[in-house]
Structures are given as structure tokens and as C-alpha cells.
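ok trying this again, last paste got cut off
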Amino acid sequence: MNARTTTRLSRAEGHEPVFWRSLWRQLPLLVALVVLWILLWDHVDVLTVVTGIALAIAVTRALYLPPVLLSGRFNPWRGLLLGVRMAFDVVVASIQVALTAINPWWKPMNSIIAVQLLTRSDFITTLTAEAISVVPGTVVVDIDRERGLLYLHALGTRTRADIARTRRNVLGTEERIVLAIGTHEQAESIRAERRARRAAQKGTS
């Protein structure tokens, strides 16, 4: 049995070559990288598309990317709430930052804040960091992936109450993302943490 016959038999049995199987799994990432390349150039032609494809393949083959584990779960209602709250936060924060920028008596008082996330998922961590950075006034400057820590620069944090509010906003964003697209285990963990936090607040009051 020669190599050509073996290849035909392996394909007939449904065993694709490793390269093509890996390429197929990374196809969404490849498409996203090509689209990003085109958006960066702001011009669509044959050369831009070809170079985008070549660079996308080079990046995915040469650089190690940790696997992203998707939950396969999506809650439409929670997803809608997440989108509405994101839009609301962006609008309110944009107005606040604009008013602060034109205030002649404003003295900047900013902070680098470490926020301990409730989950350890790389996917949830990335989405939370992106959602926080989209809202004006806060931007993630570093991520401690091993410990699940986000370090963000927050505008207008003059008091401990301002810092505590910023941390609550970050954890609230993470909570909404988990309830929308996280696993059932992550959602239950978030709900349990929320119940414990509310019970502690009632006990304190």
C-alpha cells in the first residue's frame, strides 16, 4: 500500500490531515484577522486581501495562542440587558468625560485600580476588559491572567467610595457577561456570589 492509497483511505474514514483540520478550526480567527487588516488599511483591493490572508496564516501558525473555550450557551434576555447597559454606560460616561474636560476648575485625580474578577476564564476576562475599555473614563492597562486580576486606569477617583464604585462597575460588567454567555457553572457561581454580597450588605446595614 503506497502513500497515495493510505491518504485516500484516511480521507474516506473521515480522518483529515492535521494541517487542514487545524486550519478549519482556526478559520473564524483567520477571517477576523483579515477583516482587521483591511480595516486598518481602510482600502479593499487584491493586494490588501492577499497580504491579510498571508499575515493571518503566519500569525496563527507562528505565534502560540492559548485555546479559547466557548461555553456554547447564550441567554437572549441577558444578552439584550448586557447590550442595553453597555450603551447606557457609554452614553453617560461620554457626557461625564466631556463635561469634565471643559470644566476649568477640574483638577485631575486618577488611579490605577486592581480588580479581582470572579471567574478565571480567558474568554470572560477578555470580554470584560474590552467592555470596560469601551466605556470612556476607564481603560485596562494590564491583566494578570494567572490570578484573574484586571489593572485599570480610572478617571476621577478622588475618594475610596469612587474606587469602590469603579470595582463594583467592573464586577457588574463581568456578571452580566457571564449570565449572558458563560457556562452554567460560571452563572451559578456568579449568582451565589451576588446572594452572598447582598446578604453581607444587609447584615452590615
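PB: full thing came through this time. Confidence is low (pLDDT under 50) at residues 1-16.
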